[in-house]
Amino acid sequence: MNRRYFGLTSLLMTSKKNMKINQSRLLQNIDRYAQIGKKGAIGVERISLSEEDRIARDLLKQQMYEAGLEVYIDKMGNMIGIRKGKKDAKPVAFGSHLDSVYSGGRYDGALGVLAALEIIHTLNDHGIVTDKPLALVNFTNEEGVRFAPDMMGSHVYAHPEMLQEIYASRAYDYYDLTVEKGLENIGYKGEMEPGAIKFDSFLEIHIEQGPVLESENRDIGIVEMVQGIYWSRYVIEGQANHAGTTPISYRKDAGYAASQVVQFVGDYSRKPHNHVLATVGSLAFEPNTINIVPNKATFTLDLRSTEYDTLKGAQKEIDSFIKGLVKSQGLQFTKEEMVRFAPVHFPVEMTNAVQNAAVKSQLTYKRMPSGAGHDAQMMASVCPSTMIFIPSVNGISHNVEEYSKDQDVANGAQVLFDAVLGRAVC
Ligand code: GLV
Ligand code: MN
Ligand code: MN
Asked: How far apart are CA 381 and CA 132, in angstroms?
């Protein structure tokens, strides 16, 4: 081979090997989406199937077309942008969600989708066509705060037979609004069957949403598993009565009983040997009036554990406490099981791929579990999956103050880029 030609080729090969994502483009894009449903100085409130969700989806669709992707919307509203490869193979998929919790942050979910878009832009910049096709994914309703369950879009993607049941799920605050109607309202009830595009693998970058990486001074979290999640809604019913005339022994006070449950759950979770995180995150009394003994208390329970038996055991213990409590006070209760997701372990081939990508960029890393639920946890049942975490400043998330440093955002996107390339170029 001509020396000069060889020199040019090896230069090109080296530069391709060391392709870098464009940090400022990614950060600008994160900021652009953070204006949609902006809340507080840097936060976001973009509830799934809301007008803000529609606006963010429209922008993503436009950006996917501009980046040369083929765009598919499935019946669950999941958005998939395909970039063709040299081979007719299953696409390597990567993404997350654009919806947020109430009073949420700008990174939770959006980072995963926008880093995915940055991967496409970087490949376009360098004119690279991967061997396997690529799929950028925005899953519907990961947060599940208005319509349960959470991870709804990815759950249905992995279990298309669930579609009709999920369509019927109602907004907790508006009985007439189902998921199906919500999708129609925002114009995102698509044509494609969920799960129709089979993925080679799935990678999701996300903020850690906890304090571990920051406190241990690590750049990247390699997610080995996601803990199990149980969500339940309880209604305790008693009798409304006059606060001034009803002697204590005559009361059927649903509010008092519910507060005892809050105490029990909090105490249970604070005993380290129970190995469970338990939260009563919402509680409402009826009629919620100063001088009336509440006749009704509605509250939710969020239970998490890395151990499945521990999770099931905690649920049982809490339920039996509630059962005994209401019986002893002459009350009644009902329970709705909203979410039952077992812990999920990611395959070593995927976590090692992320580790190799982190090492390539000379980043420090920690192999760790995820405390939060994620779309990758659902995708794990249909294709090899894993996640990349970046540090969360002060471990704060599900909060408008949620923040991750620019350099950490760029590091994570670069690791995603290299991990995707490692999988898609064969
Ligand atoms: C999703 O954000 C969860 O609740 O873990
Ligand atoms: Mn998320
Ligand atoms: Mn979240």
From this structure: 21
- Checking if the pLDDT of 323 tops 90, the result is yes
What sections of 225-367 are H helices per DSSP?
Answer: 254-270, 308-328, 348-360
Find out whether 304 and 208 touch, Cβ atoms under 8 Å: no
Percent of the chain topping pLDDT 70: 96
Rounded CA gap, 204 and 375, in Å? 8
Residue 346 CA to residue 356 CA, distance in Å, equals: 16
Q: Is the pLDDT of residue 40 over 80?
A: yes
The closest alpha carbon to 95, from 382, 292, 387, belongs to 387
**If pLDDT is split at 50, 70 and 90, which confidence band does 15 have?**
low
Confidence of residue 3 (pLDDT cuts 50, 70, 90): very low
Residue whose CB lies within 8 A of the most ligand 1 atoms, among 47, 96, 374, 378, for a mutation test: 374
CA of 374 to the centre of ligand 3 (A): 8
Ligand showing the shortest atom-to-Cα distance for residue 101:
3
Q: How far apart are CA 418 and CA 346, in angstroms?
A: 18
pLDDT bucket at 4, cuts 50 / 70 / 90: very low
Which residue, 113, 121, 75, 66, is CA-closest to 93? Answer: 113
CB 414 within 8 A of CB 20: yes
As a whole number of angstroms, the distance between CA 117 and CA 295 comes to 51
Q: Please tell me the distance between residue 100's alpha carbon and the centre of ligand 3 in angstroms.
A: 6
Tell me which ligand sits closest to the C-alpha of residue 205: 2
Mean pLDDT value across residues 284-307? 98
Confidence bin at 222 (pLDDT 50/70/90): very high
30 Cα: distance to centroid of ligand 3 (angstroms): 16
